[in-house]
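> forwarded from #structure-qc
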């Protein structure tokens, strides 16, 4: 137990250290984006005095190091800052838009993205495991070849291509599902599922291939083991041998690839959300880059990085729990 606790604490420390390094990279990269927000909001006819006043009001006139540590301190306290695009610039532009926190903008969008990721995972994970187990059970058969060709085709196609193919067949030629996923907070669960299903199917086609092929490879790699041969000599059925003996020992690589694909469902949905006009964090990220809304872009990137690090950390810990040999390094 002490060894497991030490491993968990060590992984948590490495995760926090990685997140800190990533935050430095995010802040540096975002602030190197071309263009200036103050100049963009005022237009080409802006005077230097007006631009300097807005930059001073937003704190953009301070050195980057000071701005980074101010942002980091706010993140630690749960404050992601204020959106530039929603800030009040009445004295400069004549508009009356009120201030809006970055957290207030991201929270509903992130909830929508998590809903989409949850629907996709509920479809993709069971299908991937079932296809991987059946492909390993009937390896080198027609079924195995067909599944491998189908998954290789889906993994080789860009997300936007798969999205438009599904829109063509399921929304245009056969109007079974809506082509636009314009959901809102007061929408019922059934209608929300209906409008989310098309982007969820697109993401399912993308992530199923990775998980299915890893499941198949991990199980086939164990089928030549002596204990598998002993189970066969006992007269156990091939399906029972795979489910009761091979699959538990193949969980570590399968868990890792599932975690990576779940992270992709949160961080890699930008293209799919833009194609289906899905109001998630990916769509907000694209709009914020276009508007040069630096605090929102930084917050979105940090959430993406934190999701990857957290899910990889969870996969690492679950692999250790599923395989006691990993708790004692050689």
């Amino acid at each position: 137990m002490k060894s497991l606790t030490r491993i968990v604490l060590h992984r948590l420390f490495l995760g926090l250290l990685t997140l800190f390094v990533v935050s430095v990279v995010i802040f540096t990269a975002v602030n190197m984006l071309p263009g200036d927000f103050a100049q963009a909001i005022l237009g080409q006819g802006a005077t230097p005095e007006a631009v300097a006043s807005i930059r001073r009001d937003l704190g953009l006139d301070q050195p980057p190091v000071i701005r980074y540590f101010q942002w980091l301190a706010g993140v630690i306290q749960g404050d992601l800052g204020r959106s530039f695009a929603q800030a009040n610039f009445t004295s400069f532009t004549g508009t009356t838009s009120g201030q809006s926190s970055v957290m207030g903008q991201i929270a509903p969008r992130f909830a929508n993205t998590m809903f989409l990721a949850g629907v996709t995972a509920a479809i993709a994970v069971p299908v991937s495991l079932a296809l991987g187990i059946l492909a390993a059970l009937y390896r080198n058969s027609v079924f195995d070849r067909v599944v491998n060709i189908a998954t290789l085709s889906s993994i080789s196609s860009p997300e936007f291509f798969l999205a438009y193919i599904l829109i063509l067949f399921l929304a245009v030629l056969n109007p079974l599902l809506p082509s636009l996923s314009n959901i809102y907070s007061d929408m019922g669960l059934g209608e929300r599922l209906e409008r989310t299903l098309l982007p969820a199917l697109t993401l399912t086609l993308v992530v199923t291939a990775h998980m299915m092929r890893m499941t198949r490879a991990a199980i086939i790699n164990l089928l030549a083991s002596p204990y598998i041969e002993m189970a066969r000599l006992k007269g156990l059925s091939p399906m029972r041998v795979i489910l009761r003996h091979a699959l538990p020992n193949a969980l570590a690589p399968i868990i890792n690839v599932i975690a990576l694909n779940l992270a992709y469902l949160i961080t890699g949905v930008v293209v799919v959300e833009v194609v289906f006009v899905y109001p998630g964090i990916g769509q907000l990220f694209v709009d914020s880059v276009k508007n040069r809304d630096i605090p929102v872009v930084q917050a979105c990137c940090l959430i993406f990085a934190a999701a990857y690090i957290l899910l990889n950390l969870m996969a690492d810990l679950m692999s250790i729990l599923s395989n006691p040999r990993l708790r004692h390094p050689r």
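QC bot note: Residues 223 and 246 are 7 Å apart (CA to CA). The radius of gyration is 24 Å.
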